[in-house]
Amino acid sequence: MPLTIDWSVTIDGINATSRFNPYVMELEVQDQAGTTSDTARITLADDGRIIMPRKGAMMRVIIMGEPVFEGKTESPRFSFAKGDGGRLILSAKGFDAEKGAKEGRHFAKEDATLEEYLKDFAKRAGLSEIKIDPALAKIKRPWWGPEGRDFLHEGQRLSRELGATFKIQGNKAVLAKRGKGMTPSGQSLPTIYATNPGNLLNVDIEPTDAREVFRDVRVGGFDRKSAKFFEEKVDIEGGSSGGASSVIRGKRADKDDAKTRGEGRKAEAERDKGGGTIEIDIEPRARAEGTCILQGARAGIDGTYRISGATHTLRPGDSGGSTTKLEVKQPDDKAGQDTRKTGDTENK
To answer: What pLDDT is attached to residue 336?
Structure first.
């Protein structure tokens, strides 16, 4: 039974939708917030008539008119079970891990901005472009260098340090400020609504992490010009008043660098103070770092969350239909607070 949702897949520029559609058992696309690569997987009922695509082919997937994936195919995988027939699994990742992005480098960029450093590194890694959030692009340091790290690992290291999201998609890279719901170019990411009654299927959320949130971030350093030690403090929104401070190890060279690293740790702490999963009817506009507003679940759970990952799954109607599963974090201040009074439980 073919998929009933409007979708398409091209491989090396050739539209393979009509060829695949009668055999599709499942299509799954994962959009991640940068810690792992975006992935796509197509499972086909296989009787040997489908020509296997080559490894390293460019795959593009569109669902309901929305481009949801672009990347390189891995080696096809085949399985067979008596009475169940053959299965051909076509998988792809958001970037080619065998190219320059995974090759360690040694070079230095002195008295430069983050944008200058990463654009140089991206070129050395064989990428055509990197888009950097304006809030991060102008960060300037006396010295930048990967010290043997490859472009992928350096991007991930800097994203953790600066409170950002780093991704490679095809031959392009992105470094965006985390938790703002914006693209590096300043455009807003779509807001997704999960409503009950409506499109909501499942919810599993812990709105407030059992661990106590740090109250602030402290970063120390040594100013060579004044020959004095200093400490920068960045308050964490929603942090516990009696909680501990998150102290970043090492000494920064100046206050600007210390402030930047403190803001990065703050963004991470605010993001991880709660979260879970929300499953809804298929919604291909859902993107990592976008916003999800949950309504109609219950008091203390409803609220606004940041999407840290989205998995779109398409199946024939008799096999479960089509859904989007959202991994969510960074709940707003309403989440975790049931403000109803005793006797008011009729109003959920």
So the answer is: 63
- For the stretch 125-164, pLDDT in tens is 999 999 999 989 999 988 999 999 999 999 999 998 888 8
Does the domain at 100-177 match CATH 3.55.50.30? Answer given as yes
DSSP string, 232-284: EEEEPTT--TTPPEEEEEEEESSHHHHHHHHHHHHHHHHHTTSEEEEEEE--T
> Taking the domains of the chain in order of start, what are their residue ranges?
7-93, 100-177, 191-207+274-329, 216-271
- Per residue in 236-260, pLDDT (tens digit) is 776 666 677 888 877 777 777 777 8
Identity of residue 347: N
Residue 34 pLDDT exceeds 80? no
CATH code for the part of the protein at 191-207+274-329: 2.40.30.150
Q: CATH for 7-93, among 3.20.20.80, 2.30.300.10, 3.40.1010.10, 3.40.50.1460?
A: 2.30.300.10
- Distance in angstroms (rounded) separating the CA atoms of residues 97 and 174: 16
Q: How far is CA 271 from CA 61, 118, 163, 268, 331, in A?
A: 30, 25, 10, 5, 8
Predicted confidence at residue 340, as pLDDT, reads 76
List the end-to-end C-alpha distance of the chain, in Å, as a whole number: 41
Q: How confident is the model at residue 296 (pLDDT cuts 50, 70, 90)?
A: very high
User: Residues with Cβ < 8 Å from 304, sequence gap 6 or more?
Assistant: 291, 292, 293, 294, 331, 332, 334, 335
